[in-house]
Amino acid sequence: MTLPAVKKVVYKDLPIRYYVVGTVAYICPDDLVPIMELDSKSIETNGEKAWDKVEAGRRIFPFFDFFDWFSEQFDDYEYSDDVVMLDPMPW
Predict the structure, then answer these.
(1) Which of 3, 21, 33, 78 could lock onto 84 through a cystine, CB 3.0 to 4.6 A?
(2) What is the H or E stretch that residue 86 is in?
(3) What is the pLDDT of residues 4-39, one digit of tens each?
(4) How many CB atoms lie within 10 A of CB 8?
(5) The predicted structure's pLDDT at residue 1
(6) How far is Cα 65 from Cα 72, in angstroms, rounded to an integer?
C-alpha cells in the first residue's frame, strides 16, 4: 500500500500538515500549537499524532478567527470515529 502524500495549508505563514485517507483529513496536532499561541491560547496535544477535523476543531474553537478559517479549509472532508495512523507517520 502506498502511503498518502502529506498536504499542507498555511495560516499566517504557519504550515498545517495533513494527510487524507478516503474522505477524511488527518491533521498534525503539533502544527496547531504555534497557531493557537498567536491568540495567547494554549492547546494540549497529549502526544497524539493525528486528529480528524472534528477533534481539531474542538481544540481550536477558542481562537474564533482561526476556527472559521480552518473550517473553510477542511469543509470538503469528512470526520472519523477512528483515526487511521500511518506507519511510519509522515511527521
Answers:
(1) 21
(2) none
(3) 999 999 999 999 999 999 999 999 999 999 999 999
(4) 10
(5) 57
(6) 11
Q: How many of the other CB atoms lie within 10 Å of CB of 83?
A: 14
Contact 60, 70 (CB under 8 A): yes
Return the residue matching grid coordinates 496547531: 32
In the chain, the N- to C-terminal Cα span, in Å, equals: 18
Q: Is the dihedral of CA 57, 46, 48, 12 positive or negative?
A: positive
Output the nine-digit C-alpha cell for 18: 495533513
pLDDT per residue over 62-91, tens digit each?
999 999 999 999 999 999 988 999 988 999
Place of cell 474564533: 64
- Please give the Cα distance from 20 to 27 (Å, whole number): 9
82 by Cβ neighbours in 10 Å (0-12 / 13-18 / 19+) ranks as: exposed
